[in-house]
TrEMBL record:
PROSITE patterns in UniProt: PROKAR_LIPOPROTEIN (PS51257)
Protein name: Lipoprotein
Source organism of this protein record: Paracoccus aestuariivivens
Length: 258
C-alpha cells in the first residue's frame, strides 16, 4: 500500500478532538466526550503512477485504535494503529516531505547555504601539550668526547621495581649502582642509566623518564640511587630515554649495562 502522509488538517482535527481544545476556555464544564471515530484525509501513492499522489479518506477508531482507509478503487483497508501497517500509513519519507514542500509552495531560495562544517581546531591545552612534546629530546649520556671507560670503576647495579597507583600503567623503578670511589657524578649516572636500559630492554619496555638521583659515599665507594618511570608509550618530558638508542650509546662508550 506504500507509505502515506496524513494531511495537516486531519492531524489538527485529531489533536483538537482528543484534547478538547475546541471547548470554550471560560466554560467550567467537562470537555465533550471524544467521538468513537475520527475522519482523516490520507495522501497516498497511486498504484498506476508511483510518482503521483492521490487523496483518500479514512477513519480512525479512538477506542480500538483501528484505521479504516478508503482506497482509490473503492475498497477499504483495515488495520490497527500500532501495527506495522498502521505505522507505515502515517510514516513520512523523503519523497513525502518533498511533495509536502511543493504543495505548501515554500520558497527556501533565500535561506543561506550553511556549507560544510569546519573541523575544530586545537584547544589552548592541546596546543600547549603539542608545543611541549616538540621540545622533547632523547636522553644522552653526559660524557665528554675524550671519555674512556675503566671497567674497574663499575662494581655492579641492581634494579628494583615499585608499585604505582597511576592508571596510565607506568611503572616506577630504582637503580642502585655501585662504583669505585672517586668516580665523577656524570659517569655514575651514566652507569645507572645503562643498567636501567639493559633491564628495560629485557622486559620489553621502550621508554623511561628520569625522576631523581641521589649520591652517597660508603666505605670509600660511590653509591648512586636513580629513580625512573617506565612506559609503553612515549611520556611527556624534556628528556626521554629510548631503550634501544641508550643501549647502543652505552656499548659505544664502553659503559657496562649490568
Amino acid at each position: 500500500m506504500g507509505s502515506r502522509l496524513t494531511a495537516l488538517f486531519g492531524i489538527g482535527l485529531l489533536v483538537s478532538v482528543l484534547t478538547g481544545c475546541g471547548s470554550d476556555p471560560s466554560d467550567d464544564s467537562r470537555p465533550p466526550a471524544k467521538p468513537d471515530e475520527l475522519n482523516v484525509t490520507v495522501l497516498q501513492s497511486d498504484a498506476g503512477a508511483p510518482d503521483k499522489k492521490v487523496v483518500s479518506r479514512g477513519r480512525i477508531s479512538t477506542k480500538s485504535g483501528e484505521i479504516l482507509i478508503l482506497e482509490p478503487d473503492g475498497s477499504v483497508s483495515e488495520m490497527t494503529l500500532d501495527s506495522p501497517e498502521g505505522q507505515d500509513a502515517f510514516a513520512l519519507t523523503e519523497a513525502d516531505l518533498a511533495m509536502l514542500n511543493n504543495n505548501l509552495q515554500l520558497d527556501l531560495s533565500g535561506v543561506p547555504d550553511m556549507g560544510p562544517v569546519r573541523s575544530r581546531g586545537l584547544t589552548a591545552q592541546e596546543q600547549a601539550l603539542a608545543e611541549f612534546r616538540a621540545r622533547t629530546k632523547p636522553m644522552k649520556l653526559n660524557l665528554p668526547v675524550s671519555f674512556t671507560a675503566d671497567p674497574k670503576d663499575f662494581e655492579g647495579a641492581v634494579v628494583k621495581t615499585w608499585s604505582s597507583k597511576k592508571k596510565s600503567g607506568d611503572s616506577l623503578v630504582e637503580v642502585t649502582a655501585n662504583l669505585r670511589g672517586g668516580v665523577d657524578a656524570d659517569t655514575a649516572f651514566a652507569y645507572a642509566t645503562c643498567a636501567l636500559a639493559n633491564w628495560a630492554g629485557a622486559n620489553g619496555t621502550p621508554y623511561a623518564r628520569h625522576i631523581r638521583t641521589l649520591r652517597d659515599k660508603r666505605n670509600g665507594k660511590m653509591i648512586v640511587g636513580s629513580v625512573f618511570t617506565l612506559s609503553e608509550k612515549k611520556p611527556l618530558g624534556l628528556t626521554v630515554m629510548t631503550t634501544k638508542d641508550t643501549l647502543q650509546e652505552c656499548k659505544s662508550r664502553g659503559i657496562p649495562a649490568a
